Amino acid sequence: MSNPQQLRYSKEHEWLSATDADGVATVGITEYAANALGDVVYAQLPAVGDSVTAGDTCGELESTKSVSDLYAPVTGEVVEANQDVVDDPSLVNTAPFEGGWLFKVKITDEPADLLTADEYTAFSAG
Predict the structure, then answer these.
(1) pTM of the model
(2) Sorted alphabetically, which InterPro entries does this protein's record hold (predicted)?
(3) Which of 61, 76, 81, 107 has its CB 3.0 to 4.6 Å from that of 45, i.e. a possible disulfide?
């Protein structure tokens, strides 16, 4: 399993893209988390306009095995939720770093404890 080098990662197994010119970043869950969950059958994502706080629950993913909380890796305002994932939650399993992204957030505060790809790989292996 390889974690894209250009992303940053939380210890709750979310990934975060680099911010664009408007300060917006994309959030998803890692391949490691998707594999641990099993087949995702339902996604409850934060709504556009919702405020999210780094480390706090902002949604949930339900799989055939369990229900897992979704955590915000940064603080900010949700500007887009991935309707494709709501309609077809299996995208989280089949394309966690591409079409299976979860939401986009305009960042107001970014924690210092996000991991690089190599740090996350070591963390998730331990």
Answers:
(1) 0.95
(2) 2-oxoA_DH_lipoyl-BS (IPR003016), Biotin_lipoyl (IPR000089), GCV_H (IPR002930), GCV_H/Fam206 (IPR033753), GCV_H_sub (IPR017453), Single_hybrid_motif (IPR011053)
(3) 81
